[in-house]
Amino acid sequence: MAKNILIVDDSASVRQMVEVTLKSAGYQITAAKDGQEAYELCQTKAFDFVLTDQNMPRMDGLTLIKSLRGLGNYRTVPIVVLTTEASDAMKAQGRAAGATGWMVKPFDPAKLLQIAAKVLN
After folding, report:
1. Distance of CA 35 to CAs 13, 60, 75, Å?
2. Does pTM surpass 0.85?
């Protein structure tokens, strides 16, 4: 059975590139345009992996991670941040919020597939 992945990014082009990359490996994809939409989706649907941007309107990535970690069924779901933010301080904030990993944009499709395979196995 295909793993369900939630992509969260306010950029339609990034969502599309990530979706095409992950679908090519057989994953089922749902996309949200910001953290608030993603949080609402997660309250009604189970995802095996969440890939989120950091800088978004309505709810940013770190707030989304903290919110999801507060939901019982998302306590252990892998959540990776895919963002332009590359500072060690921001990465530390991500770890503190409960992020599983961190990727910097622009992303390498092969690396994204490696990370997805790693966190989903």
Report:
1. 17, 6, 17
2. yes
